[in-house]
Amino acid sequence: MSSPLVVDYYSDILCVWAWIAQRRIDELNKQLGNKIELRYHYVDIFGDAINKIPTQWREKGGYDGFSAHVIESASVYEDAHINSDIWSKIRPVSSANPHLVLKAIELTYSCQQSIELALKFREAFFVEAKDISHLSVLFSIIEQAGLDSNRVNKAMNDGSAMAGLMRNYQQAKALELKGSPSYIIDNGRQILYGNVGYRVLLANIEAQLNAPENDVSWC
Q: Which residues face 42 on adjacent strands?
């Protein structure tokens, strides 16, 4: 049996387009099963949200304007529920803390459990309007999921989780990623980013799956 096709998936935990893309990710896994392997990485889009949003949205209503934009963007997707309080009343200062905790979970437990907790973090923010930039909120969520917060904290204290996160951020810069989410296919030869439709994702991945192994570029 051939190895699954690797799709490197970069996102920011606070990005609404990554929240919307979750349903497409779920469907890809459902349809393609063990033919693909999604590897989760994080990119710095809202690492400095406390300055980014007021600056970039100064002429468009600041936090309230950005909140309205996020709510409107998700309104056409029935599965991407959005709490009206996010960004207007609940304003995370940074996505770095949740990214760091997810890297610690990946190192302490497994990639799969980190992926599952990433979804729980997103649901906590977008649906429940919890400020997931606070470590206390994040640790409460992982404890509710049955994980040992002391073990996770150890990977943060010794710097190993930070090293993993910085590796992700540096890889994203090296790839010159333009946004969240970004999909890296065929070892970086193909990059899709932003609000990419499910059929587009499926067509590009299936094209790689069906490509002959000895296919040589005409270039």
A: 11
What is the tens place of the pLDDT at every residue in 74-122?
999 999 999 999 999 999 999 999 999 999 999 999 999 999 999 999 9
pLDDT per position as a tens digit, 162-217: 999 999 999 999 999 999 999 999 877 899 999 999 999 999 999 999 876 645 44
Q: Where are the domains of the chain?
A: 5-210
What residues does 86 pair with on adjacent strands?
Answer: 90
Phi then psi dihedrals of residue 141, to 5 deg: -65, -45
Res 1: pLDDT: 57
pTM score, whole prediction: 0.93
Class level of CATH domain 5-210:
alpha beta
Name all contacts of 115-121 with Cβ < 8 Å and 24+ positions apart. 115/38, 115/40, 116/145, 117/141, 117/142, 117/145, 117/147, 118/13, 118/40, 119/22, 120/145, 121/13
